[in-house]
Amino acid sequence: MIALVDVNNFYVSCQRAFEPAMEGRTIVVLSNNDGCVIARSNEAKALGIKMGAPWHQLRELVQQHGIVHYSSNYALYADMSNRVMSVLGRFSPDQEVYSIDESFLGLDGMPGDLTDYGQEIRTTVRRWTGLPVCVGIGSTKTLAKLANHLAKKRPEFGGVCELAKIPPARLQAIMAEVDVGDVWGVGRKIAARLAGEGINTVADLAAADAEGVANRYSVVLQRTVLELCGVPCIDLETAAPDKQQIMCARSFGQPVFTRGELASALSSYVARAAEKLRKQGSAAGGLMVFIRTNPFRPGDPQYSPAVTVPLTTASDDTLLLTRAALWTLDRIFLPGYRYAKAGVMLTNLQPRDTVQRHLFVEDRVDPGKRAALNAVIDQANRRYGRGSLKLASALDDKGWKMKQGKVSPHWTTVWADVPVVH
Amino acid sequence: MIPELIGPIPAHDSPPPCALPLADVLVPAGFPSPAEDHAEERCDLNMYFIDRPEATFFFRVAGDSMVSDDPQRSIPPGALLVVDRSLEASHGDVVVAAIDGDFTVKRLFSRAGKVALVANNKAYPPIVLGDEQELSVWGVVTGWAMKSQR
Q1: Most buried residue, A22, A24, A47, B35, by most Cβ within 10 Å?
Q2: Cα Rg, chain B, nearest whole Å
Q3: What sequence ranges are listed for the domain UmuC (chain A) (predicted)?
């Protein structure tokens, strides 16, 4: 048996955990640059506010209903996510962290009643972290996902839904009520195609001929059908593989026009990506740099180049990677465009300790000294906050820095932001 | 024997002098440390203060409501509170509680059906929970720490 545990309205719940006055209020959390809604409290959902709704279109609703909004506070969400995952890890030796707020748990061999176990998971996470979760239990990952969906949408389950506990006729009836688009792995496009051939609900999809689905759609959807019928096809991935690429890309707070500003933004993204790279003990064999204008302003001239460059020797050195990124920027930068976003992706990652040194190119800098310098940069930024110690090329950050009008304090990750009690 | 070269050698526009590096490994020549097998993790304040890191949060104390004549119980303003959410609060615990949407740190009184939040400092009257008020204990204070001012 497999459980899927996920946090209800994760970002909103994180905000509420440190502001008890927000319990019961209508809350939305906004994307980077406060562009659109990326999380909603149940009250906000009840008002009909859609995921992804542009924030500026909600002005009227905000005034009518006194909606509270937050800029996204990823430092807080990341810490709370780690806490939840760590608590969940106590409940099973087999854990797959599936996303920032979801985790699969293998429950094979667990003694006792699994619904009771699910309730224990629920109360423990709630008590230890303050965050509400729902638990779905099924014999495959796809069924666990479905059970979790039911636990969240149907109050009669009390937050824990174990499919095996539902009488078969009742389960059949429920599956005939759930939209096929709510099945894990069935996207909007596939759902529309399925509807075209009369497959509208989970029950329809479970009853479909798996072979035929494989022929008409894909092996992936065939697996989904089999999993809905209780045949496990997708294994728990308990060991997270090291990342093959590390990406850091952001939309700017306001449009950027100059090479200097782009260089500054890219420098700061490289610094962040390189820090992650060192943390996982890898070196990058190449990097990709892109800059782009805003495709949502069709009146503007559009330009969105991306270039990948290989490195002579794979490296995890912020200085070297920055130099490579800025060299690349100079190859693609053209003046006269309103740039809206830039990013860097470190590619061809390999273990740092087995990097092939180049036989005929002498290192221009002492790699030992450079490693020590990078270690100091990482240490300083951990201690004094991200971006405390950076390259001068990242200084010109007036224009592109993210617009975050209402970000809450970093309650758990910055000493100065620790909540105050009287 | 002349070794065969396979594949092109990348050109370098300004070839540097080809220095041959010496082995870059430190070879210890002395006697191995007699303490090596006995090394242990250094004492860690986190270990001292925190039992369950996932459930532990920090708060900063403002005001003197928890200052007491009893030095063992006295929590000075500015102290950093270590708060464990996983513990069930019981009578006599120092707790962080949410009352009417605000956080407060007080000692929990819970006897004979009466629930109150009591300050260490006698200048502050106890907060007796009325029927309308909802007390929610956020977490139990398991310790506090202060840095010296210098």
Answers
A1: A22
A2: 30
A3: 2-187
* Whether A117 contacts A94, CB under 8 Å: no
The A residues from 72 to 111 touching B (CB cutoff 8 Å) are 82-84, 86-87
Residues of chain A in contact with residue B105, where contact means CB-CB under 8 angstroms, are 421-422
Long-range Cβ pairs for the range B117-120 (8 Å, 24+): B119/B65, B119/B66, B120/B65, B120/B66, B120/B67, B120/B68, B120/B70, B120/B73, B120/B74, B120/B75
Q: Is the dihedral of CA A251, A255, A257, A258 positive or negative?
A: negative
Tokens of A22: 């927000």
Question: Which has the closest alpha carbon to A13: A58, A55, A87, A73?
Answer: A73
In B, which residues are within 8 Å of A422 by CB distance? Answer: 61-63, 65, 102-105
CA distance A374 to chain B (A): 20
Q: How many Å lie between the alpha carbon of A417 and the closest alpha carbon of chain B?
A: 9
Judge whether B86 is closer than 8 Å to chain A, CB to CB: yes
Tell me whether B150 touches chain A (CB under 8 Å): no
Q: Which pair of tokens denotes residue A105?
A: 């748990």
A211-241 residue pLDDT tens: 999 999 999 999 999 999 999 999 998 876 6
Catalytic residue of the set B33, B74, B90, B106: B106
Give the residue among B97, B121, B93 at the shortest CA–CA distance from B109.
B93
| CB–CB contact A20 B19 (8 Å) | no
Determine the longest span between alpha carbons in chain B, in angstroms.
Answer: 98
**Stated length of chain A:** 422
Question: Are B54 and A21 an interchain contact pair (Cβ–Cβ within 8 Å)?
Answer: no
> Comparing C-alpha atoms, which of A290, A43, A10 is closest to residue A133?
A10
pLDDT in tens, B95-150: 999 988 889 999 999 888 888 999 999 999 999 887 777 788 999 999 999 998 88
- For residue B135, give the chain A residue with the closest CA: A20
Helix spans in A217-336 (H): 219-228, 259-279, 318-332
pTM score of the predicted model: 0.79
